[in-house]
Design goal:
Elements: E1 2-13, H1 15-18, H2 25-28, E2 40-49, E3 52-56, E4 70-73, H3 80-86, E5 96-99, H4 104-107, E6 117-120, H5 121-127, H6 130-138, E7 150-152, E8 165-167, E9 174-178, E10 187-192, E11 198-201, H7 209-214, H8 224-240, E12 243-246, H9 253-259
Parallel strand pairs: 3-5, 5-6, 6-7, 11-12
Antiparallel strand pairs: 1-2, 1-4, 2-3, 8-9, 9-10, 10-11
Amino acid sequence: MRIHPLTTGAVRLKRAFLHPGRGVRRQLDLFLPGPFSAPMPIHCWAVEHAGRLLLVDTGESAAARNIPFARFEVSPQQELPAAFAAAGLALTDVSEVILTHHHGDHVDGLHHVRAPARINAAELEFLSSPFPRAMRRVLRQPLPPGFAPQPFTLDGGAFGAFAHSHALSDDGRIVAVATPGHTPGHISVICVDDDGRHVMLAGDVADTLEQLLALRADAVAPDPKVHVATLEAVMAHCAQNPTIFLPSHDPDSLARLAGAIPVA
């Protein structure tokens, strides 16, 4: 198994997103003036295993519009085709795309890929509901043209500390697990590498390892208690299995992958 990091530009996030307040301020502060972070990467991942090339998320595009709590820094030369070329891979070899959730910086690159895409059925149901539809209009962040992933269900029972899962490879070494919080249908992909380590392609379960260790819900999670419960499940899984935790926006994710550094 080989896991390739693919970086499609960067995003600056408002501090109120990374370190939200409590109560009504948790989301209100997202739309008020405030400082932004340094640029944080927008990662997605290509997994070579058993003769297949699986793509987890598709990154952002240069057409991304800034929103009150995120400023995107993506050029056309940083989109998915260039990221694939830099990794020595071919987009035409992708056999399947798995989306962790529906936010633009994880799905906007989908138009570059001809392979079929899949998303958790619970996430597909959520993104079609009134509130996220309204927010996409307000923030001027539509789903990409032709967005039509096929749903899958987490029908595989427990996997480690996660109550619900779905096998993504015949040998069970690539598994989608339920990690709700950032969005209700968010999933992560766990790859069991050749040395038995669990490499967790975590999407936006947390923006950084620091957030995971702090058990801190983010500012956009519809239910912070659900998000915290998921972070606790991730920590429990890390205690049970050597787990390399790779959020999509953590500047240190690439070093942890390269060094095979598990969560202590």
